[in-house]
Amino acid sequence: MIVLGIETSCDETSAAVVAADRTILSNVVFSQIADHRPYGGVVPEIAARAHLKHLPSLIRQALDEAGLGLDDISAVAATGGPGLIGGVMVGVMVAKAIAAVRGLPFLAVNHLEGHALTARLTDDLPFPYLLLLVSGGHSQLLSVEGVGRYRRLGTTIDDAVGEAFDKVAKMLGLGYPGGPLVERAACDGDPRRFDLPRPMAGRPGCDFSFSGLKTAVRQRLDALGPGPLSERDAADLAASFQAAVADSIADRTGRAIALFREAHPRGGALVVAGGVAANAMLRDRLTTTAAAAGLPFVAPPSKLCTDNAAMIAWAGIERLHLGLQDDLGFAPRPRWPLDPSASPAIGAGVKA
Ligand code: KG4
Ligand code: ZN
């Protein structure tokens, strides 16, 4: 079984070909960052148009790199949500067209399920496991019980962590997208110079909050006075912010591990996914947190943690194995929680 995957929910246009034996035959990702950089963030209308422009040639490239034609494909899987709806519509429409013309099964994949199941593609991980999903649109802790079976243990009550990285980068004049730039600046900085809050640390539950931390960075910045920020100040603030984020996430994750252990006394692992999972310091902290609880720590390679179509193709394969497929009448979904029974968090974003 070989599945063509399509991902268009945010600012990466991606097509991939993945086999049921876990071989990624191709995974082509086109980043639209240059198109959005002048605006300091993703512009939905520009994203949708760029997906439309690039997707057909990316699909061709993905098939070429895999050395296959459409005749060799067993099914087409596309992100069906959640995400910026214009982009999701482009991917779903193209996938449906290929499926209809070729008479292939079509799968509408939940983008978050794509992130959630990546560790099974890369590490053949058995269920259940605890997932920390940290991206530009989401900060969630989920108990992954099976395909389509998720229990949300925590989520953000305001901003997503990636969003906080991007905003702090903007404040420090580092550019866009902020995560990698804050991480680079922080390498030369002193994480103890600025005393920043550790949001939610020590509080009951596993929810996150990053908006207050962002404001605290703004206040420290203002206290430095007017005029251009020195490289030293920017590096120290970036390092102090990154340390506060890592402490906060480690605290929340530690609590989620305890809840996970109550339900699953044996087995399991801590898995990290989403763009922020590329952060080396956060990975280090989580390695320690997991080890302290006796859980293995699984972090897929960075290029499979950020948005990509291989994870969508893989989620499609998992669903096909269960005999699932979707109707061509499927309507793209701007919101699509993995755990529908969890109450919506206050102010939670819709971006994936
Ligand atoms: O998962 P992703 O590629 O797209 C979304 O679905 O949002 O995540 C993108 C987010 C951005 O906010 C970006 O700044 C952040 O991940 N990010 C990082 C790093 N690399 C990317 N944040 C912290 N450290 C990094 N090295
Ligand atoms: Zn994502």
Search tags:
single chain, 352 residues, alpha/beta, Nucleotidyltransferase, domain 5, 2 domains, 5-stranded mixed beta sheet, 11 helices, disordered C terminus, binds zinc ion
Short description:
This protein is α/β, with parallel strands linked by helices and 352 residues long.
Bound ligand species: 5'-O-[(R)-(carboxyoxy)(hydroxy)phosphoryl]adenosine, zinc ion
CATH topology of the largest domain: Nucleotidyltransferase, domain 5
The coarse overall form would be globular
Number of helices: 11
Distance between the termini: 28 Å
Low-confidence stretches: 347-352
| CATH fourth-tier homologous superfamily of the largest domain | ATPase, nucleotide binding domain
Beta strand %: 15-25%
Strand order of the largest sheet: 3-2-1-4-5
Describe the fold and architecture:
Helix content is 44%, strand content 17%. It has 352 residues and is α/β, with parallel strands linked by helices. The chain folds into 2 domains: 2-116 and 303-321, ATPase, nucleotide binding domain (Nucleotidyltransferase, domain 5); 127-300, Nucleotidyltransferase, domain 5 (2-Layer Sandwich), CATH 3.30.420.40. The strands form 2 sheets. The protein has a 5-stranded mixed beta sheet with strand order 3-2-1-4-5, sandwiched between helices. It has a 5-stranded mixed beta sheet with strand order 8-7-6-9-10, sandwiched between helices. α2 runs parallel beside α3 (85-102), α5 (161-171) runs parallel beside α7 (211-223) and α6 (178-187) packs across α8 (231-263). Bound molecules: 5'-O-[(R)-(carboxyoxy)(hydroxy)phosphoryl]adenosine and zinc ion. Zinc ion binds at residues 111, 115, 135, 274, 307, 352.
